[in-house]
Amino acid sequence: MAHVREGRGPTLTVVGGGVIGLGCALAAADAGWRVTVLTDPDSPRAADVAGGMLGSLGEGHPGEDALLEITADSVRRWPELLARLGDPAIAAADDSLFVGVAAADVAFLSQLARFVWSKSVDESVLRQVTGREIRELEPALGSRLVGGYLASGEGAVDNRALLAALETTLARAGGVVVPRRVDSLAGLEGDRILVAAGLGSSKLVAGVDLYAAKGEILRLSANAWSVPGPRHVVRARVGDRMVYLVPRRGGIVVGATQYEPIDADDRAPRVSGVADLLADALEVMPGLRTYDLAEAGVGMRPCTPDGLPIVRELDDRVIVAAGHGRNGIVLAPWTSHRVVEILGKAAAE
Length: 349
Known about the structure:
Radius of gyration: 20 Å
Strand order of the largest sheet: 5-6-4-11-12-13-10-14
Distance between the termini: 27 Å
CATH topology of the domain at 1-92 and 157-208 and 305-349: FAD/NAD(P)-binding domain
């Protein structure tokens, strides 16, 4: 049985201790709910393997207008969440550079800026930059970069510092995190149940159609010989692929691949994926050769057929928040807000 803490107020049991589950739990606790989070200690969290970018533009692609809209809404909510967590170590960067290695790459970015990005940001947020300006902003980037865009406010967080801060802040708000695997919702205590178990959500509730996308991310650590890392998030178009470099204290995160896994146990880094990431990252920042390869991480992202997260009430007790794909971290505030809206509506009825 779940151990919902004693006291006044309605009770909420959250199944899933990833960034969505913890973010919703904290928001619910702040709204007066008594919250218990059940998290499987043996199940990897998608947010443990992430770049942590908070911008909407990097996730804005043709045909994804609905996703861009909710992502932009969530980005506007991030400053409030960061203030609530109160840990400056979470922030990793404030702005992003979108860069291209060749003229065709910049043309691709320009098409996004004109027809997609302009729908969610005003002109003051996005500024076109030349290759010379890119190197003035980030001297360690390669001389072959010919142009791109500077996106003000398109920052990033340290994903693992974020998860730790969410747990700490939730505990201070009276929430409880219990290590426990949940195979069925039957028998769970709580006035309401929130299923935020990533890919496992489809096994717990009917009608939640999710599939896994495998993604690799590299963590590079600086040594005494390493060139200084970037201050911005660097998102580069290299041919037909995108690669990003995200600063971390003492290193850089490089990502990310995305493709269909062989099966649910396909969690080993694939040589081709790691090789592509390294080749593209070195094209953008040759000085990465001076870093140490600290980790080649693999995450399984819970995706939906239409690319949009599932955040809805299933019945008078169960809510689901799942299927965020590559956008779990950036969409955490929007999802938390939506879940609290659902909880508030039900409490008022």
